[in-house]
Design goal:
Elements: E1 6-14, E2 17-25, E3 31-35, E4 39-41, H1 60-67, E5 72-73, E6 78-84, H2 92-95, E7 101-103, H3 111-114, H4 124-136, E8 142-145, H5 151-157, H6 162-173, E9 182-192, E10 195-196, E11 209-211, H7 228-248, H8 258-269, H9 279-290, H10 293-296, H11 301-317, H12 327-352, E12 373-380, E13 383-390
Parallel strand pairs: 4-11
Antiparallel strand pairs: 1-2, 2-3, 5-10, 5-12, 6-9, 7-8, 8-9, 12-13
Helix pairs in contact: 1-12, 9-12, 11-12
């Protein structure tokens, strides 16, 4: 049965095993208790409400898994994206092969400076990195030039339906033909690439809790264009099948304590109607903590520590005082609380990974270091517990013998 407009706030457990979930109706505020022999977590792992069609991805997937005792990994990897400064547009990775170009303020195809072989036909995270170096060197702003695309490319990439068609029509009404112009673009922090640790069967390690879709840690830390549909369908099938087998093997259903479940939910519902800090202010703060270049693109220990110190202050003096005037804003409160959690995970994991690898670039540690390892996070006795787990390459039939990052040479900074 599909039950819509429900915000899930917590997973309920019987000892170590998940036995259900609690939440509330987003319009009426009606409490909702769900008894279950197994739960499949398929909520997006979360993001920072960038304007690029992602204003509803906030982090509840990570928060629910973390609260239930599951482990998360790869939280230091985020989706940094190129976007137009004044509007939204999709398809840059499709347009670049047809002749589109990223240019700096001097009209140079600047990515050739960092990768003569690939140029801008690269993973967007590397293009964003190049953009940051160019702007810092005084060669900004950055433009996306589609006027050099082939006629075939323009025909293929011109929107024919959906929001992109509406966008294209509106732009033309304003006198802007996207495929005959050079528009200013900028980087933007979008979503987390991390997720809940799960085995090949989608099991999280917590009895009764299975994971699918972008809530699960399967993204390699860079952009995999068009992969989400494949990922959600395959991991969803696997998790559903595994949950069914788990349930069929139970001799009895896990105990669901109504009083305990209601008490857990009351901790969130009690925030309705009180004076205090509105969720939008916390969301704005998290965006401010993530936005600096030395935090999200050219990471440094100094930049990451600066944002982490501000976050720790917010955890003491701002987050405990969040409130919501009505249920709709209580949903926003849960999102803001979750966003603060994934921000903390990102900052701490980024500080711990003292190397550059894949989409994670530490300007103060620009080289790869040693064999690959996952940074794994779980809820410890005294707060967030982080550890490094080596990737078991000895069990992999295909061993890495070359790295995508070796196609690029970015400037080395002597002092950060």
């Amino acid at each position: 049965q599909r039950i819509g407009r429900i915000e899930i706030t917590d997973l309920v457990k019987d000892g170590d095993a998940v036995s259900g979930a609690v939440g509330f109706h987003a319009q009426s505020g009606t409490p909702c208790l769900f008894r279950a022999k197994a739960v499949i977590l398929a909520a997006h792992n979360g993001g920072w409400k960038g304007s690029y069609l992602l204003n509803t991805c906030a982090g509840e997937g990570a928060a629910l898994a973390y609260g239930a005792g599951a482990s998360l990994r790869n939280m230091e990897f985020i989706e940094n994206w190129n976007v137009p400064k004044l509007f939204a547009w999709e398809g840059q990775t499709g347009m670049l092969p047809y002749g589109a170009r990223f240019l700096n303020g001097e009209g140079e195809d600047f990515m050739r400076r960092y990768s003569p072989k690939l140029g801008a036909k690269a993973d967007p995270h590397y293009n964003v990195r190049g953009m940051a170096f160019e702007v810092r060197a005084g060669r900004g702003p950055i433009y996306f030039d589609t006027s050099t695309m082939s006629p075939e490319g323009v025909e293929i990439m011109t929107p024919t339906g959906g929001w992109m068609k509406l966008n294209d029509t509106k732009l033309k009404e304003l006198g802007i033909d996207f495929f005959k112009s050079k528009t200013e673009w900028m980087p933007q922090v979008l979503t987390s690439f991390g997720g809940t640790v799960a085995d090949k069967d989608g099991w999280s390690g917590v009895p009764g809790l299975f994971v699918a879709g972008r809530a699960r840690s399967v993204t390699p830390g860079v952009y995999m264009g068009g992969w989400d549909t494949c990922k959600t369908t395959t991991t969803g099938y696997i998790a559903g099948n595994s949950a069914g087998k788990y349930v069929s093997g139970l001799t009895s259903a896990p105990r669901f304590d109504d009083a305990h479940a209601s008490g857990t939910l009351d901790a969130t519902l009690s925030l309705l109607g009180k004076p205090g800090v509105y969720p939008k202010d916390v969301v704005r703060l998290m965006q401010e903590l993530m936005a600096p270049m030395d935090v999200c693109i050219l990471k440094t220990g100094k930049g990451l520590t600066r944002s982490l110190e501000r976050l720790e202050d917010a955890k003491r003096n701002i987050l405990p005082y969040m409130t919501a005037p009505e249920p709709h804003y209580l949903v926003k409160l849960v999102e803001a609380r979750s966003m603060a959690l994934i921000t903390e995970m990102y900052l701490k994991a980024s500080l711990m990974r003292k190397e550059s690898r894949s989409g994670h670039y530490r300007e103060d540690f620009p080289e790869r270091h040693g064999d690959p390892a996952w940074i794994v996070i779980r809820d410890g006795h005294d707060g967030m517990d982080l550890r490094a787990d080596p990737v078991p390459l000895d069990r992999y039939p295909v061993k890495p013998h070359r790295y995508y990052m070796d196609n690029f040479a970015f400037p080395k900074t002597s002092a950060i």
